Automatic annotation (TrEMBL):
Gene3D superfamilies: 3.40.630.30
Family matches, as SUPFAM superfamilies: Acyl-CoA N-acyltransferases (Nat) (SSF55729)
Keywords per UniProt: Acyltransferase, Transferase
Protein known as: GNAT family N-acetyltransferase
One MF term in the entry's GO annotations: acyltransferase activity, transferring groups other than amino-acyl groups
Natural source organism: Nonomuraea montanisoli
Start and end residues of each N-acetyltransferase domain: 1-171
Signal sequence coordinates: none
Amino acid sequence: MTTIDDATLARLHDAYLQAFADLPGPLFSRRRFQWLFTHGSPGQRHEVRVVEEGGEPVACYRLRFPEHDNTHIAWLDPLFVRPDRRGRGLGARLLDEAAGRARANGRSLLFVETPTDGVGARFAVAHGFTVSVAEARRTLDLRTADWAGFRRMLPPVEGYEVELWTGPTAPERLADLGTVMGGMNDAPADASTEHSHFDAERVRAHEESMVPGGLDCYTAMARRVGDGAPAGFTRIFLDADREDGWALQTDTAVLRAHRGHRLGLLLKLANLLRLREREPQLERVVTWNAKSNAHMLAINEAMGFRLLDEWNTWRLPI
């Protein structure tokens, strides 16, 4: 855990907002930003480096080191320089330092995500990164969405039932949630990455960090009626303070043995309809997919998600 005092964190968040002001879509709230930069993510170590000038933060990186699997990887999440301090080599110096810290931690591959256009992409190319996964963000405007149409779209799926809950997952569901989270290993990823394994304790750590980390969550999980086997899941996260009107559609997966029943569409629609019922003030949902994930893209577009922007995950052997 990296220690940064609250006053510095507040100024660092202001620098972060300036650095990414041109990006469409949601940015981290101060509460969420402060949690990530002090506590990080469960199952990962992190290091934070802040550059100050005249007592003001002007540049920063955060390095994430997965500990359970993919221990050859480090993530720059993020690296940024305040716009009025760019063009002086600060970013290059921070990248060199971050790569050195990653190597010192036994890592051989560095990842970062940026939009396909703009300063981040130019920086990545100039410093030897290559594209690992091409991605896109899409948004659904909840204010104009066809809610009656969504109810008509709900597919009749025999032999399965959907469980819905809000907030952290109850202890009795942790193992099953871990099972369906394993379905995300089928999503497009860098060829060097290993499958992630989610046992109950690993899932518990993630769930226990949700509330103190400034998040709330809506989850839908499908089970086969005959034997109760978990079959798939989807999740929507939102800021616990409901500050910005955004929600984030994250993982959706159906296990191989249960595919072909339209469970993915059922889960996403059921979860979204419940979100609308409970959170009518929300304005938009944003989701993120690999451009090669044709099946999930088709579901999103059928639901009315429209392209916001395109991103790359970049890789750099170190």
